[in-house]
Protein backbone atom coordinates (compact mmCIF):
# COMPACT_ATOMS: atom_id res chain seq x y z
CA UNK A 1 0.00 0.00 0.00
CA UNK A 2 1.21 3.49 -0.75
CA UNK A 3 0.94 5.56 2.42
CA UNK A 4 -0.16 9.15 1.98
CA UNK A 5 -0.68 10.10 5.62
CA UNK A 6 1.69 7.86 7.54
CA UNK A 7 5.47 8.08 7.39
CA UNK A 8 7.04 4.87 8.57
CA UNK A 9 10.54 4.22 9.79
CA UNK A 10 11.68 0.87 11.15
CA UNK A 11 15.17 0.35 12.62
CA UNK A 12 16.79 -1.34 15.59
CA UNK A 13 13.61 -3.20 16.65
CA UNK A 14 11.54 0.00 16.85
CA UNK A 15 8.85 1.15 14.40
CA UNK A 16 8.07 4.85 14.30
CA UNK A 17 4.84 5.98 12.66
CA UNK A 18 4.53 9.71 12.02
CA UNK A 19 1.07 11.02 11.23
CA UNK A 20 1.66 13.56 8.53
CA UNK A 21 -1.22 15.82 7.56
CA UNK A 22 0.19 18.98 9.14
CA UNK A 23 -2.04 21.36 7.15
CA UNK A 24 -5.03 19.86 9.00
CA UNK A 25 -3.11 19.42 12.27
CA UNK A 26 -3.06 15.66 11.58
CA UNK A 27 -6.84 15.36 12.08
CA UNK A 28 -7.95 11.75 11.87
CA UNK A 29 -9.88 10.85 8.72
CA UNK A 30 -10.94 7.55 7.10
CA UNK A 31 -7.71 7.33 5.09
CA UNK A 32 -5.71 7.53 8.33
CA UNK A 33 -7.62 4.61 9.83
CA UNK A 34 -7.23 2.56 6.63
CA UNK A 35 -3.48 3.22 6.48
CA UNK A 36 -2.88 2.54 10.17
CA UNK A 37 -4.79 -0.75 10.03
CA UNK A 38 -2.88 -1.79 6.95
CA UNK A 39 0.39 -1.01 8.70
CA UNK A 40 -0.67 -2.90 11.85
CA UNK A 41 -1.57 -5.92 9.65
CA UNK A 42 1.99 -5.86 8.29
CA UNK A 43 3.59 -5.29 11.68
CA UNK A 44 1.65 -7.92 13.63
CA UNK A 45 3.51 -11.02 12.41
CA UNK A 46 6.97 -9.41 12.52
CA UNK A 47 9.17 -10.73 15.28
CA UNK A 48 11.97 -8.24 14.72
CA UNK A 49 9.94 -5.22 15.87
CA UNK A 50 9.51 -4.92 19.65
CA UNK A 51 8.08 -1.44 20.20
CA UNK A 52 5.82 0.86 18.19
CA UNK A 53 6.04 4.66 18.52
CA UNK A 54 3.34 7.00 17.22
CA UNK A 55 3.94 10.72 16.77
CA UNK A 56 2.70 13.65 14.70
CA UNK A 57 4.35 16.01 12.24
CA UNK A 58 4.33 19.76 12.85
CA UNK A 59 2.66 21.55 15.74
CA UNK A 60 0.07 18.85 16.47
CA UNK A 61 0.13 15.26 17.57
CA UNK A 62 -3.48 15.02 16.40
CA UNK A 63 -6.03 17.87 16.75
CA UNK A 64 -8.98 15.48 16.78
CA UNK A 65 -11.20 13.59 14.43
CA UNK A 66 -11.44 15.32 11.06
CA UNK A 67 -14.31 17.77 11.53
CA UNK A 68 -14.25 18.60 7.79
CA UNK A 69 -14.94 14.94 6.99
CA UNK A 70 -17.45 14.41 9.82
CA UNK A 71 -19.59 17.41 8.96
CA UNK A 72 -20.73 15.76 5.69
CA UNK A 73 -21.53 12.34 7.17
CA UNK A 74 -24.96 10.80 7.26
CA UNK A 75 -25.88 8.51 10.09
CA UNK A 76 -24.65 5.34 8.36
CA UNK A 77 -21.29 6.92 7.45
CA UNK A 78 -21.01 8.28 11.00
CA UNK A 79 -21.60 4.78 12.36
CA UNK A 80 -18.92 3.29 10.05
CA UNK A 81 -16.43 6.03 10.93
CA UNK A 82 -17.11 5.47 14.60
CA UNK A 83 -16.78 1.68 14.39
CA UNK A 84 -13.57 1.90 12.39
CA UNK A 85 -12.01 4.32 14.89
CA UNK A 86 -13.08 2.41 17.97
CA UNK A 87 -11.79 -0.89 16.57
CA UNK A 88 -8.47 0.68 15.59
CA UNK A 89 -7.92 2.20 19.03
CA UNK A 90 -8.90 -1.06 20.76
CA UNK A 91 -6.48 -2.83 18.46
CA UNK A 92 -3.64 -0.52 19.48
CA UNK A 93 -4.46 -1.04 23.14
CA UNK A 94 -4.36 -4.82 22.68
CA UNK A 95 -1.49 -4.80 20.18
CA UNK A 96 1.11 -7.47 20.88
CA UNK A 97 3.99 -5.04 21.49
CA UNK A 98 4.08 -1.86 23.60
CA UNK A 99 2.93 1.31 21.88
CA UNK A 100 4.34 4.71 22.90
CA UNK A 101 2.67 8.01 22.02
CA UNK A 102 5.31 10.71 21.49
CA UNK A 103 3.03 13.70 21.93
CA UNK A 104 4.71 16.59 20.17
CA UNK A 105 1.84 19.12 20.19
CA UNK A 106 -1.96 19.33 20.31
CA UNK A 107 -3.61 16.06 21.43
CA UNK A 108 -7.25 17.04 21.34
CA UNK A 109 -10.46 15.03 21.08
CA UNK A 110 -9.71 11.93 18.99
CA UNK A 111 -6.01 12.84 19.31
CA UNK A 112 -6.07 12.62 23.08
CA UNK A 113 -8.06 9.40 22.69
CA UNK A 114 -5.43 8.00 20.33
CA UNK A 115 -2.70 8.86 22.86
CA UNK A 116 -4.72 7.18 25.61
CA UNK A 117 -5.05 3.98 23.57
CA UNK A 118 -1.24 3.77 23.58
CA UNK A 119 0.59 2.22 26.53
CA UNK A 120 2.66 5.29 27.46
CA UNK A 121 2.48 8.97 26.68
CA UNK A 122 5.69 11.01 26.62
CA UNK A 123 4.96 14.67 25.96
CA UNK A 124 6.85 17.69 24.72
CA UNK A 125 6.47 20.78 26.92
CA UNK A 126 4.57 22.24 23.95
CA UNK A 127 1.89 19.54 24.01
CA UNK A 128 -1.68 20.39 24.94
CA UNK A 129 -4.32 17.88 25.95
CA UNK A 130 -8.08 18.06 26.05
CA UNK A 131 -11.45 16.65 25.07
CA UNK A 132 -13.09 19.69 23.45
CA UNK A 133 -16.05 17.77 21.96
CA UNK A 134 -18.54 19.73 24.13
CA UNK A 135 -17.59 22.81 22.09
CA UNK A 136 -18.94 20.98 19.04
CA UNK A 137 -22.09 19.86 20.83
CA UNK A 138 -21.00 16.24 21.01
CA UNK A 139 -19.58 13.75 23.46
CA UNK A 140 -16.24 11.96 22.93
CA UNK A 141 -16.61 8.97 20.65
CA UNK A 142 -13.33 7.06 20.86
CA UNK A 143 -13.62 6.01 24.49
CA UNK A 144 -12.37 9.10 26.33
CA UNK A 145 -15.33 8.72 28.70
CA UNK A 146 -13.81 5.38 29.72
CA UNK A 147 -10.04 5.63 29.27
CA UNK A 148 -9.63 9.11 30.75
CA UNK A 149 -11.24 8.15 34.06
CA UNK A 150 -9.21 4.94 34.24
CA UNK A 151 -5.96 6.83 33.65
CA UNK A 152 -6.59 10.00 35.65
CA UNK A 153 -9.49 9.27 38.02
CA UNK A 154 -13.14 10.20 37.94
CA UNK A 155 -12.81 13.85 38.96
CA UNK A 156 -10.22 14.69 36.31
CA UNK A 157 -12.18 12.90 33.56
CA UNK A 158 -15.40 14.69 34.49
CA UNK A 159 -13.57 18.01 34.68
CA UNK A 160 -11.83 17.69 31.32
CA UNK A 161 -14.81 16.36 29.38
CA UNK A 162 -17.50 18.60 30.90
CA UNK A 163 -15.46 21.83 30.68
CA UNK A 164 -13.80 21.03 27.31
CA UNK A 165 -10.73 22.78 28.79
CA UNK A 166 -7.30 22.25 27.29
CA UNK A 167 -4.44 21.52 29.69
CA UNK A 168 -0.66 21.82 29.45
CA UNK A 169 1.77 18.91 29.37
CA UNK A 170 2.81 19.68 32.97
CA UNK A 171 -0.81 19.49 34.13
CA UNK A 172 -1.24 16.26 32.15
CA UNK A 173 1.78 14.89 34.02
CA UNK A 174 0.31 16.00 37.36
CA UNK A 175 -2.95 14.10 36.76
CA UNK A 176 -1.20 11.00 35.41
CA UNK A 177 -2.27 11.40 31.81
CA UNK A 178 1.36 11.40 30.67
CA UNK A 179 4.39 9.61 32.08
CA UNK A 180 7.05 12.18 31.28
CA UNK A 181 7.43 15.72 29.90
CA UNK A 182 10.49 16.71 27.89
CA UNK A 183 11.94 19.78 26.21
CA UNK A 184 10.50 19.83 22.66
CA UNK A 185 13.85 19.12 20.98
CA UNK A 186 14.50 16.17 23.32
CA UNK A 187 11.15 14.43 22.76
CA UNK A 188 12.17 11.84 20.19
CA UNK A 189 15.50 11.19 21.89
CA UNK A 190 13.73 10.45 25.20
CA UNK A 191 11.11 8.32 23.48
CA UNK A 192 13.72 6.31 21.58
CA UNK A 193 15.66 5.79 24.82
CA UNK A 194 12.52 4.40 26.47
CA UNK A 195 11.64 2.28 23.42
CA UNK A 196 15.19 0.89 23.25
CA UNK A 197 15.12 -0.03 26.92
CA UNK A 198 11.82 -1.88 26.56
CA UNK A 199 12.90 -3.52 23.29
CA UNK A 200 15.94 -4.91 25.11
CA UNK A 201 13.95 -6.55 27.89
CA UNK A 202 13.19 -10.31 27.80
CA UNK A 203 11.32 -10.60 24.53
CA UNK A 204 8.28 -12.62 25.61
CA UNK A 205 8.06 -11.06 29.08
CA UNK A 206 7.23 -7.59 27.72
CA UNK A 207 4.18 -8.52 25.60
CA UNK A 208 2.99 -11.00 28.22
CA UNK A 209 3.13 -8.32 30.94
CA UNK A 210 1.24 -5.88 28.74
CA UNK A 211 -1.46 -8.47 28.01
CA UNK A 212 -1.93 -9.42 31.64
CA UNK A 213 -1.94 -5.87 32.99
CA UNK A 214 -4.54 -4.87 30.39
CA UNK A 215 -6.68 -8.00 30.84
CA UNK A 216 -6.41 -7.88 34.63
CA UNK A 217 -7.84 -4.38 34.94
CA UNK A 218 -11.21 -5.73 33.74
CA UNK A 219 -11.17 -8.66 36.21
CA UNK A 220 -11.52 -9.01 39.93
CA UNK A 221 -8.21 -9.17 41.82
CA UNK A 222 -8.34 -12.90 42.49
CA UNK A 223 -9.03 -13.90 38.87
CA UNK A 224 -6.36 -11.49 37.68
CA UNK A 225 -3.81 -12.93 40.12
CA UNK A 226 -4.70 -16.42 38.90
CA UNK A 227 -4.11 -15.30 35.33
CA UNK A 228 -0.69 -14.00 36.40
CA UNK A 229 0.15 -17.33 38.02
CA UNK A 230 -0.86 -19.25 34.86
CA UNK A 231 1.21 -16.96 32.65
CA UNK A 232 4.11 -17.04 35.11
CA UNK A 233 4.15 -20.82 34.86
CA UNK A 234 4.06 -20.78 31.04
CA UNK A 235 7.24 -18.68 30.96
CA UNK A 236 9.28 -21.65 32.08
CA UNK A 237 8.70 -23.09 28.59
CA UNK A 238 10.58 -20.14 27.13
CA UNK A 239 14.32 -20.20 26.53
CA UNK A 240 14.44 -16.43 27.16
CA UNK A 241 13.28 -16.89 30.77
CA UNK A 242 15.88 -19.61 31.40
CA UNK A 243 18.53 -17.43 29.76
CA UNK A 244 17.59 -14.41 31.95
CA UNK A 245 17.99 -16.40 35.15
CA UNK A 246 21.15 -18.20 33.99
CA UNK A 247 22.74 -14.89 32.99
CA UNK A 248 22.06 -13.47 36.46
CA UNK A 249 23.64 -16.48 38.14
CA UNK A 250 26.61 -16.40 35.76
CA UNK A 251 27.02 -12.63 36.33
CA UNK A 252 26.70 -11.68 32.66
CA UNK A 253 24.19 -9.88 30.41
CA UNK A 254 21.41 -12.08 29.00
CA UNK A 255 21.78 -13.02 25.36
CA UNK A 256 18.27 -12.44 23.95
N1 LIG B 1 -10.49 18.59 11.97
C1 LIG B 1 -10.26 19.14 10.76
N2 LIG B 1 -9.43 20.18 10.56
C2 LIG B 1 -8.81 20.68 11.62
C3 LIG B 1 -9.00 20.16 12.94
C4 LIG B 1 -9.88 19.04 13.08
N3 LIG B 1 -10.08 18.47 14.26
N4 LIG B 1 -8.25 20.89 13.79
C5 LIG B 1 -7.62 21.81 13.03
N5 LIG B 1 -7.95 21.70 11.73
C6 LIG B 1 -7.50 22.49 10.61
C7 LIG B 1 -8.10 23.90 10.67
O1 LIG B 1 -9.39 23.92 10.14
C8 LIG B 1 -7.11 24.68 9.82
O2 LIG B 1 -7.38 24.41 8.48
P1 LIG B 1 -7.30 25.62 7.36
O3 LIG B 1 -8.28 26.62 7.83
O4 LIG B 1 -5.88 26.11 7.43
O5 LIG B 1 -7.66 24.94 6.08
C9 LIG B 1 -5.77 24.01 10.16
O6 LIG B 1 -6.10 22.72 10.70
C10 LIG B 1 -4.99 24.77 11.19
O7 LIG B 1 -5.83 25.00 12.30
P2 LIG B 1 -6.00 26.43 12.99
O8 LIG B 1 -5.81 27.52 11.99
O9 LIG B 1 -7.26 26.39 13.76
O10 LIG B 1 -4.72 26.43 13.97
P3 LIG B 1 -4.56 27.22 15.33
O11 LIG B 1 -3.14 27.05 15.72
O12 LIG B 1 -5.11 28.60 15.23
O13 LIG B 1 -5.48 26.42 16.38
C11 LIG B 1 -6.32 24.41 17.45
C12 LIG B 1 -5.12 25.13 16.75
C13 LIG B 1 -5.93 22.97 17.69
C14 LIG B 1 -6.54 25.11 18.82
C15 LIG B 1 -7.57 24.57 16.58
O14 LIG B 1 -7.24 24.13 15.27
C16 LIG B 1 -8.73 23.74 17.07
O15 LIG B 1 -9.41 24.12 18.03
N6 LIG B 1 -9.00 22.61 16.38
C17 LIG B 1 -10.13 21.75 16.66
C18 LIG B 1 -9.86 20.96 17.89
C19 LIG B 1 -11.05 20.08 18.22
O16 LIG B 1 -12.18 20.56 18.44
N7 LIG B 1 -10.80 18.78 18.25
C20 LIG B 1 -11.78 17.84 18.58
C21 LIG B 1 -12.40 17.43 17.32
S1 LIG B 1 -13.82 16.46 17.64
C22 LIG B 1 -16.75 9.75 17.30
C23 LIG B 1 -15.48 9.43 17.63
C24 LIG B 1 -14.58 10.41 17.85
C25 LIG B 1 -14.96 11.74 17.74
C26 LIG B 1 -16.24 12.04 17.40
C27 LIG B 1 -17.14 11.05 17.18
N8 LIG B 1 -17.64 8.69 17.13
C28 LIG B 1 -17.23 7.37 17.53
C29 LIG B 1 -18.95 8.94 16.68
C30 LIG B 1 -13.98 12.72 17.96
C31 LIG B 1 -14.27 13.98 17.87
C32 LIG B 1 -13.23 14.94 17.85
O17 LIG B 1 -12.08 14.67 17.95
Structural summary, described in words:
By secondary structure, this protein is α/β, with parallel strands linked by helices. The protein has 2 domains: 194 residues, Alpha-Beta Complex (2-enoyl-CoA Hydratase, Chain A, domain 1); 45 residues, no CATH class. Helices cover 47% and strands 17% of the residues. Strand 1 and strand 2 form a beta hairpin. Helix 9 packs antiparallel against helix 10. The longest helix is centred in the first third of the chain and has 20 residues. The structure holds 4-(N,N-dimethylamino)cinnamoyl-COA. The site of 4-(N,N-dimethylamino)cinnamoyl-COA has 24 residues, from helix 2, helix 3 and strand 6.
Main CATH class of the largest domain = Alpha Beta
Q: What's the CATH architecture of the largest domain?
A: Alpha-Beta Complex
Task: List the domain count as a whole number.
Answer: 2
Bound chemical compounds:
4-(N,N-dimethylamino)cinnamoyl-COA
Q: What's the helix-strand series?
A: EEHEEHHEEHEEHHEHEHHHH
Strand order of the largest sheet: 1-2-3-5-7-10
Radius of gyration: 19 Å
CATH superfamily of the largest domain: 2-enoyl-CoA Hydratase, Chain A, domain 1
Q: Termini separation (Å)?
A: 33 Å
Main pleated-sheet profile = 6 strands, mixed
Uncertain stretches: none
Strand content: 15-25%
SS-based class: alpha/beta
Round the mean pLDDT to the nearest integer and report it: 95
Number of strands: 10
Q: Could you say which overall geometry the principal axes of the C-alpha atoms support?
A: globular
Helical residues, percent: 40-55%
Count helical runs.
Answer: 11
Amino acid sequence: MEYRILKIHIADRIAVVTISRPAALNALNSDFFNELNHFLDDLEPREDVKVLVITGEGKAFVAGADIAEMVHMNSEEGFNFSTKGQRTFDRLEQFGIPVIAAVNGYALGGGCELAMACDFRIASKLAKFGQPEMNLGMIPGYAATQRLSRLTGLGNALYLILTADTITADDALRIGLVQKVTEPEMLMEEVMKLATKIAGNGSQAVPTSKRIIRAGIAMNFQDASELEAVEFGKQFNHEATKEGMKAFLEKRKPDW
